[in-house]
TrEMBL record:
InterPro entries reported for this sequence: PS_Dcarbxylase (IPR003817), PsiD-like (IPR022237)
Alphabetical keyword list: Decarboxylase, Lyase, Pyruvate, Zymogen
Name recorded for this polypeptide: Phophatidylserine decarboxylase
Single GO molecular function: phosphatidylserine decarboxylase activity
UniProt domain L-tryptophan decarboxylase PsiD-like: residue ranges: 48-173
Keyword Lyase: yes
Organism expressing this protein natively: Pseudofrankia inefficax (strain DSM 45817 / CECT 9037 / DDB 130130 / EuI1c)
Pfam families the UniProt entry points to: PS_Dcarbxylase, PSDC
Gene Ontology BP, a term: phosphatidylethanolamine biosynthetic process
Presence of keyword Ribonucleoprotein: no
């Protein structure tokens, strides 16, 4: 099966601008990394987590079978991966460990590892492969190693005023750095690392809170584009189906069933961040934190029912809310009209380091920061109890032209 570039462009939704829509751009990107890997020579040492990943895949016969099949199936389908086997892929992954994305308005490759795994992950063998707990544990270590690089000073080589730097004139027209805490008179705008830049904070007053004293005004927890609204969510549901219904027991995990049961029959609002969005989370309501916990999960698992989802889990956002690495923060408002609100911040591909900044029993005001995605943005769900939401500000259906809702802007009116 050969698929031309036009067909690929149509099918490659790649929401959030983390990956380019045009497949030929990703092909060039993968080949650039392949060229760099070849420069290092055959048998070049791998960083410890990449070597551990390679050891796992090469010594586990089932994983080696699935990985080999996924690569071969993608190549047979007509996709140019830039590598032909597991060893060549590992060499490319190793190059990523010291990569920081440059600025690009239309061809940004914000998720380089996702770009390498783009097609194998949605091949028949890729679906079971990327659900493997052992594989995901090694991928977590690889991503943490890369995140550590992005948190150090050596990652700042594109935090410069010349193209393709993030402070070039064109980049600044997109980023609106005047809204953020920074110092343009200092090198790198005074950011200590790539992650320091990407988790930059708004200046005071840049995003005022709607209805600050009105508990029934629910605001956006992230600067994010609406993806879905679902009513009457169930404790357990078939989340792996095309409609991707939300299954509360799976979102919160079986060990937290009593917590999940509080939201049966309620509503879910889901929205996703783009590469140019603000990347921190804020409280959508005021109240007391009654739960705050991280969950390990998948990183590159797609849903078969969505078919080819080449942007990674972009079209599988409902599904990954129940299986991907994520952070759960639950706020009891103490107001019967609003009840308890759950905030689930979900990692997608590289954007999987969910940092919680609050703890149980802590009181928060609406609009207070409660955590952030380290490196970039992702998707998140706000879950409400039965009968709480009277009306929504964003109205489905949502598509690629739906604009993002600013942080702290009203998304719903509560009041049961």
């Amino acid at each position: 099966m050969n698929i031309d570039a036009d067909t690929i462009a149509v099918r490659a939704s790649r929401r959030g601008h983390w990956l380019p829509v045009r497949e030929e751009v990703l092909v060039a990107f993968r080949h650039k990394f392949a060229q760099e890997a070849r420069k290092r020579g055959p048998g070049a040492p791998l960083t410890p987590p990449v070597q551990d990943l390679a050891n796992l895949v090469n010594t586990d016969p089932v994983l080696r079978m699935y990985f080999t099949q996924a690569i071969e199936q993608a190549i047979a389908a007509g996709y140019d991966l830039g590598y032909r086997n597991i060893d060549e892929l590992m060499a490319l992954i190793n190059v990523i460990m010291t990569y920081a994305p440059p600025f690009d308005t239309t061809e940004l490759v914000g998720c380089p590892l996702n770009a390498l795994l783009d097609w194998p992950m949605c091949m028949p063998a890729g679906f079971p492969l990327f659900r493997s707990p052992a594989l995901n544990a090694k991928l977590k270590a690889v991503l943490q190693y890369w995140c550590d690089f992005l948190s150090g000073p050596d990652s700042r080589y594109y935090l410069i005023p010349e193209p393709p730097g993030w402070f070039s004139p064109e980049a600044l027209s997109y980023l609106r750095m005047s809204e953020f805490v920074c110092d343009p008179t200092k090198p790198y705008y005074d950011f200590k690392s790539w992650n320091d830049f990407f988790t930059r904070k708004f200046k005071a007053g840049a995003r005022p809170v709607d209805g600050p004293t009105d508990n029934t005004v629910v605001v956006s927890a992230c600067e994010a584009t609406p993806y879905n609204i679902q009513n009457n969510v169930q404790l357990t549901d078939r989340f792996w189906m095309k409609a991707q219904p939300y299954s509360l027991a799976d979102i919160f995990t079986s060990s937290r069933q009593a917590l999940a049961e509080q939201f049966v029959g309620g509503d879910v609002y889901q929205a996703f961040l783009s590469a140019y969005n603000y990347h921190r989370w804020h409280a959508p309501v005021a109240g007391t934190i009654v739960a705050a916990y991280p969950l390990d999960g998948t990183y590159y698992s797609d849903l078969e029912a969505e078919g080819l989802d080449p942007g990674g889990p972009d079209d599988s956002q409902g599904y990954i809310s129940q299986v991907a690495a994520r952070a759960v923060i639950v706020i009891d408002t103490g107001d019967q009209r609003v009840g308890t609100v759950a905030c689930v911040f979900v990692g997608m591909a590289e954007i999987s380091s969910c940092v919680i900044k609050v703890s149980e029993k802590q009181k928060v005001q609406k609009g207070d920061e409660i955590g952030y995605f380290q490196y970039g943005g992702s998707t998140h769900c706000l879950i409400f109890q039965r009968g709480v939401i009277r009306s929504w500000v964003p109205k489905p259906p949502f598509d690629f032209n739906t604009p993002p809702i600013k942080l702290n802007r009203q998304i719903a009116t509560a009041g049961r």
